[in-house]
Each structure stands twice: as structure tokens, then as C-alpha cells.
Specification:
The structure holds 2 protein chains of 2 kinds. By secondary structure, chain A is an alpha/beta fold. Chain A contains 17 helices and 8 strands. Chain A is 60% helix and 11% strand. Chain B folds into 2 domains: 241 residues, 3-Layer(aba) Sandwich (Rossmann fold); 56 residues, no CATH class. In chain B, the strands form 2 sheets. Chain B has an 8-stranded mixed β-sheet, sandwiched between helices. A two-stranded antiparallel sheet of chain B has the order 5-6. In chain B, α3 packs across α4, α3 crosses α6 and α7 runs antiparallel to α8. The radius of gyration of chain B is 25 Å and the shape is elongated. The chains are: A alpha/beta, B alpha/beta. The interface between A and B is large, with 81 and 83 residues.
Chain lengths: 394, 342
């Protein structure tokens, strides 16, 4: 047996059902590169957990239209809605929602800023651009929303009401997906730093007297920024930051709380990848990053692995037989089928070699494979099939 | 010798200097961007391949150490010509920008001490995209020896779902800053992006979600007047079976007896006991695989139809069975040239 083949089989199997059934599992985060089927995997896990008896909410970031429709998500209304068609005979339930980053941001402001400041913030042009069209906001807001869902679950449970036992989160489709892990630290260094004092100084103390004691550096920085941005834009930014000042602290405290929640043993991170070099390189990055942050990784879901229905016939034999038949003539159909098979066998071998390389680098990460399907998932049955494949380790 | 044009003579995209390449994750947009940079460099031209998400996908493709902010030579194109590579890092872009345009080297240090640089590059959403597009703009505009430093810049851009926001970020900045050099700079960048010197190509594969994202991406780009280039259909496989066999395979109408007969003729199934059963299992397996194959091909045909409705020039690249290495990139570059994308 070659090195690679042995590595491919040495990975421990990621067992999905015990993970989903364990009442101690409260949060499950799916991360991975874009285009690997992360959202589908998150939805499939959520459906399976619900049909095995747990009360689940799944937070998706940017689902494909038909996948969203399959869960009855017709609009981005930022509120969890019950998914119809779920088998609730075991006492479980599934709610689903799509993240609306602007709305989430607006709600944070409306809830946490003093009323007179809230209006000022919501109308600020920089706030409007930042909350609706700037990259990076999504990561902060995904973290905020996760914290909100968990708080609601805990509050409902404390009040003796029916509450979510498991929150499944999909992450934004980019390498910056884990940027939300940096949010507390980034906000912290900003809030403890000099720049925010500079930005808020004029508003806080009516300007000059305070500015004087604050070293010449401030004047220099103001000069530079005014030159770069223009006085009006700098004023807009300063007004916004000053108004947001009351919100930042809470924002940071919640981000820190969510960060700790993610390190908790009730949280499980699942990395999703496809058997492609890029996707697996990203998966390695996520695995290493999670380890560095001491986040509880439970394993890798390797999606879209090619499977065959006649694995006992090798690619080489199938091709040789196809060539023989083509030479003899009269069996074009069989020869064609043998070529289809040989092609599949090769792709399967390539997938396994890829998986083997990942496992060689990360021998402790359990893996489960999900077979490639001819069609995308459009309905709950499709999600059930994918979940069953994950659980069966097929 | 007459001055050489910046664009290869057979290219559909004469006069284009900035090729933005986007696509859904997993469609191979980095590979396509790299092949395009090679193709555009053919015949003695200079191209720059730019990565913006810090993934080091370019370094992996060309098998070189991780790229940094300093441009590095990546490959020599057929007939002479060079491809250089760069991974844009927002903080370095900001410092360079302050220094280059406003001679604010010292002011840059001041802003850094104040925490303004950290704020701009890590805390404030959106600023990264402003800085990255600014660096791309600088590379496109750079002059060397009385001509453009690069005949073409190929940008391995963020994925389709994010591309419009990424490219249009400077429009937001123009709206936010009434005066000042940042506004002017942002205005100039938007000017370049909306000019005939720029096109945005979309990479897809023949699967439902990537095609849907391509259609949505084209709509979004069009809505903000960004110039749409070609559609590159990547990882194309030729069907192994004929049209009628494919249709029959999906409907389960292929004749198991005929297949088993063929397998027997080819000597598959062996001669010992249990031959019949084994042959039947193998036949069933192969018919099942053929049905899956047929279903896939039918779906691909449907997706091709959807893409055709976009009425954009469309280019196809094959799935190469041995994966992508430097040799494969040259092969893909040749195919892009033959089809007129470069």
C-alpha cells in the first residue's frame, strides 16, 4: 500500500449523529471556502438534528435561491421562521433565517444607543455605507446575530418556554469568514487606542481647550486627515464615532462573550471542503486557525467526493476492456460504459489522494465524505439524503 | 520595428488594460486569471497578475514561494513576455499611497502612531477594498520608459457574490467625501473601472449554482454600469456516450443483456463459479453510472442554454485530467488565445 493510500484510510471517521444528538452540543459552526456546499451542509445537519428530536435554528448567510426556497425562506427578514415539512414526530423543530446585515446593525443601534443618538447614527452617510455596502460588516454582524440567538435561547429556557437547543451557523463565503474571531480584539485595540480619543475629542469637550493638552500630534493628524478626506467627511466620521461611542463598548463586550461562547465545549466547528487543492488548502488554514484560537474543531466534511457503483473494476481494466471491444467491434455501448466507469474511477482516486494529503497534514482531524450528486439540492428530501450520507459515513 | 500594441492582435478585447476575473468559489477563477495573464503576455508583452484575498493561490499555481507586496517574476510567456505577480496587502497599499501621492511619508508614520492605519486596514469595514482597488489602479497607470509598465493587469478578484460591491466601493467613497484627494482618487478609480480599458470576466462551471450566480453577477454589474467582459466556462468535459445512449441511460432503457454480452466478450466477469451473479452486479453498476452521467450531461446542456441567454462572448476551457500545474497553465493559455479571450 502506498504512503498516500494509507494516509487516506487512517483518518478517524467523523460521527455526525452522536454530535447532533448530544444535548451538550449547543452551537455548531460550519466554515470553509466558498463553493464547497457549506450552506447546504449546514442546512442538512440542521434538518437531521431536528428530525432526530432537537429544537434547532439554522442561521444562513447567503444561501442559493433554491436552497433558501426549499427551507421556505422567501425573504430576508432577519427573523427565524419555522421550516415546513420537517418530521417533528420525535419532538424536534427547525427554524431557519437568513442574515440581513444592515437590519442587524440597525437593530443593534436602535437597541443600544440612547434614542437621541440613534437617529443621528442611522442618518449618518458613513454609517449607511458601512452598514449596507462595505465588506467586513457581514462578519461582525454574523457574530452579533449568533450572540442574539443564543441569548434568546437562554432567556426562553430560563422562562420555562420552548427554546432552541442547538444553533447551527453558516459563515460568510470567504477567507475572511473567520474574521469574526478577530472582532473582539480589533474593537478592543481600537477602543483602547488613541485614534478613538482623537476622533471623539472635539465632540466630547467642545474642541480647543482639550485639543491643546492633547499634544501637537493631534493637530498634525487632523491636518493630514483633513487634507486627505476634506473637512466635511472628517466631521461626518467624527460625529459618527462620537455618537457610536456609547454603542461600541457594549458591542465589544458582546463580541467577547460570543468569542468565549465559541471556545466553550458546547460549541463544535465543522470545516467543509471539496476534494480540490484550493478548497483543501483553505480547509487547512481554517483547521490551523481554529487550533490557534483554541476553538473546538470536531472534524472535516469532505463534500462532493466522486463515488462509483462498480468499485471492484479498476480504471485500468475497464479502459483495456473498452479498447479491446472497440477493436473487435459490435459492442460500442459497453465500451462507452466502461469509459464512463474508468473516468469515474480516476476521479475517485484523485479525490482520495487529495483527502490523503489533508489527513497526512492533519492526522487528528476526523473526516466524513459526502458523495457528489448529479444535481444541486432543491428540497428537504435532497437535504435528508445529504445528511444521511454524512451520518452513514458512506 | 513598429511599436507593439498592448493587446494581442486576435484578441476580442482590444484596448483593454485591466481584466478583472471573478467567479463563484470552486469554479477555478484563479487558474483562469493565471492562464489569462500568460496568454496576454505572449509575444513579448508584460502582464501583472494580482491577488487580493491573501490566499496565495497564485504562488501555489506557479509553484513559487508566497507572494508579497513586492512584485515578483512568475513565468515567461510563449514568444517572450513576462508575467509578474503581486499579492496586495491593504496596509502596505495605504502607506505607499500616502507616500506616493502626497509625500506624506512622515505623516503616514504619524497616522500609524495614532492608530489610524490600523483602524483603516482592519477595523473599518470597506477600507480594505478602497485600498486594494487603489493599488490596482496604480499598477494599471504606472509608466516605464515612456509607455505603460504593464500591457495588461489581470485581477484575481473577489468571488461573484461580492464583486460588484468590491468594484463599486469607490463610488461610495465619492458619495461620502465632498472634496479632497481621496475623493479625487476614488473618482479616478471609478473612471478607469467604467472605461473601455476595463472588463469584468465571469468564470463559471456548468452547474446550477455557479451559473445562477453568473447571471445574477451580470445583472448587478450592469446595474452599476461596470463593463462586462466574457463568460469563461471552465472544467468542461466532453460526454463519453452518444446523445441517444445518454437519453436512454437516464430513462433506464439501455439493454442490460447487450451490456453483459459486451462485458463477457471483453473477458470481464471471470470464468469461475458465480460468474452470472458477478456479471449482473457489474452490469447494474455500469448502467447506474451511465444514468448519473446522462443526468449530468442533460443538466449541463440546460445550464449552457441559460448562459447563452446572457448574450456575452463565451469561452470554454477543458477539465484537465491530471490537475493544474505550470504546463497545464500554458495549455489553458493557448486555448484562451485561440478563442480570442487574449
Amino acid at each position: 500500500m502506498s504512503e498516500l493510500a494509507r494516509a487516506a484510510t487512517s483518518a478517524e471517521l467523523l460521527r455526525i449523529d452522536p454530535l447532533l444528538d448530544d444535548p451538550a452540543t449547543r452551537i455548531l459552526v460550519c466554515c470553509g471556502a466558498g463553493g464547497v456546499g457549506k450552506t447546504t451542509v449546514a442546512a442538512a445537519l440542521a434538518l437531521r438534528a431536528a428530525e432526530r428530536g432537537r429544537r434547532v435554528v439554522v442561521l444562513t448567510i447567503d444561501p442559493a435561491r433554491r436552497l433558501a426556497q426549499s427551507m421556505g425562506l422567501r425573504e430576508l427578514d432577519n427573523t427565524p421562521r419555522p421550516v415546513a415539512g420537517v418530521d417533528e414526530s420525535k419532538g424536534g423543530r427547525l427554524d431557519a433565517m437568513m442574515l440581513d446585515m444592515k437590519r442587524t446593525f440597525d437593530e443593534v443601534i436602535e437597541t443600544h444607543a440612547p434614542p437621541e443618538k440613534a437617529g443621528q447614527i442611522l442618518e449618518n452617510p458613513f454609517y449607511q455605507a458601512m452598514s449596507s455596502s462595505f465588506a467586513g460588516t457581514q462578519e461582525y454582524m454574523a457574530m452579533e446575530k449568533l450572540g442574539q440567538l443564543r441569548a434568546r435561547a437562554d432567556a426562553d429556557a430560563a422562562a420555562g418556554e420552548e427554546s432552541w437547543e442547538l444553533i447551527i451557523v453558516d459563515t460568510p463565503p470567504s477567507r475572511s469568514a473567520l474574521d469574526f474571531l478577530d472582532a473582539p480584539q480589533r474593537l478592543g485595540s481600537f477602543l483602547d487606542g488613541r485614534f478613538i480619543r482623537f476622533l471623539t475629542a472635539p465632540a466630547r469637550v467642545g474642541g480647543r481647550a482639550y485639543m491643546k493638552v492633547f499634544s501637537a500630534a493631534l493637530g498634525g493628524a487632523t491636518g493630514v486627515l483633513t487634507r486627505l478626506l476634506g473637512a466635511q467627511a472628517l466631521r461626518d466620521i467624527q460625529t459618527l464615532v462620537a455618537a457610536l461611542d456609547t454603542v461600541f463598548g457594549g458591542f465589544r463586550a458582546r463580541a467577547e462573550a460570543t468569542y468565549q461562547l465559541l471556545q466553550d465545549k458546547g460549541t463544535a466547528f465543522v470545516v467543509v471542503a471539496a476534494p480540490e487543492p484550493d478548497a483543501l488548502r483553505e480547509a487547512s488554514y481554517f483547521v490551523e486557525r481554529l487550533a490557534a484560537e483554541r476553538m473546538p474543531l470536531v472534524g472535516l466534511v469532505l463534500n462532493r467526493v466522486h463515488t462509483t457503483r462498480a468499485g471492484e473494476l479498476s480504471a485500468e481494466r475497464a479502459l483495456a476492456a473498452a479498447e479491446d471491444l472497440e477493436e473487435v467491434g459490435g459492442h460500442a455501448l459497453t465500451a462507452g460504459l466502461l469509459r464512463v466507469h474508468a473516468d469515474l474511477m480516476r476521479r475517485r482516486a484523485r479525490d482520495h489522494a487529495m483527502a490523503g494529503r489533508f489527513t497526512a497534514a492533519h492526522p487528528d482531524v476526523p473526516v466524513v465524505e459526502v458523495p457528489a450528486r448529479p444535481q444541486d439540492v432543491h428540497d428537504l428530501d435532497g437535504l435528508r439524503d445529504i445528511a444521511a450520507a454524512m451520518a452513514g459515513g458512506a | 520595428m513598429p511599436a507593439r500594441d498592448s493587446t494581442p492582435p486576435d484578441s476580442h478585447w482590444q484596448g483593454v488594460r485591466l481584466h478583472v476575473v471573478t467567479g463563484k468559489g470552486g469554479t477555478g477563477k484563479t487558474t483562469v486569471a493565471a492562464a489569462m495573464a500568460l496568454a496576454l503576455a505572449a509575444g513579448g508583452r508584460q502582464t501583472l497578475l494580482v491577488e487580493v484575498e491573501g490566499r496565495q493561490g497564485i504562488a501555489a499555481l506557479f509553484d513559487v514561494p508566497p507572494l508579497g507586496y513586492a512584485e515578483r517574476h512568475l513565468a515567461v510567456a510563449p514568444g517572450g513576455g513576462d508575467v509578474s505577480g503581486l499579492s496586495v496587502e491593504p496596509k502596505a497599499a495605504l502607506m505607499e499611497y500616502l507616500d506616493l501621492f502626497y509625500h506624506l511619508g512622515r505623516a503616514g508614520k504619524l497616522l500609524e502612531r495614532m492608530g489610524a492605519v490600523d483602524f483603516a486596514t482592519t477595523v473599518a469595514p470597506g477600507m480594505r477594498d478602497v485600498l486594494i482597488t487603489g493599488k490596482v489602479y496604480e499598477a494599471v497607470r504606472r509608466r516605464r520608459n515612456g509607455g505603460p509598465a504593464f500591457d495588461a493587469v489581470v485581477l484575481d478578484a473577489p468571488p461573484t457574490g461580492r464583486i460588484t460591491r468590491f468594484l463599486n466601493v469607490n463610488e461610495e467613497v465619492v458619495g461620502l467625501t465632498k472634496v479632497g484627494p481621496i475623493r479625487n482618487q476614488s473618482g479616478s478609480i471609478m473612471g478607469l473601472l467604467r472605461s473601455p480599458q476595463t472588463v469584468v470576466h465571469l468564470v463559471t462551471v456548468l452547474e446550477e449554482m455557479p451559473v445562477q450566480e453568473t447571471v445574477d453577477g451580470v445583472d448587478e454589474l450592469r446595474a452599476v454600469d461596470l463593463p462586462i467582459g466574457g463568460v469563461v466556462v471552465n472544467l468542461v468535459r466532453d460526454p463519453v456516450l452518444g446523445t441517444r445512449d445518454l437519453a436512454d441511460a437516464v430513462k433506464g432503457r439501455l439493454d442490460p443483456e447487450a451490456v453483459a454480452g459486451g462485458l463477457r466478450t471483453a473477458g470481464l466477469g471471470g470464468h469461475s463459479t458465480g460468474v452470472q451473479a458477478r456479471l449482473a452486479t457489474l452490469t447494474e453498476g455500469l448502467l447506474g453510472e451511465a444514468a448519473d452521467h446522462g443526468e449530468r450531461v442533460a443538466l449541463e446542456r440546460q445550464e449552457r442554454g441559460t448562459l447563452a441567454q446572457l448574450r456575452r462572448p463565451t469561452y470554454e476551457l477543458p477539465a484537465l485530467s491530471d490537475g493544474i500545474d505550470l504546463g497545464a497553465l500554458y495549455e489553458l493559455a493557448r486555448r484562451l488565445r485561440e478563442q480570442g479571450l487574449a
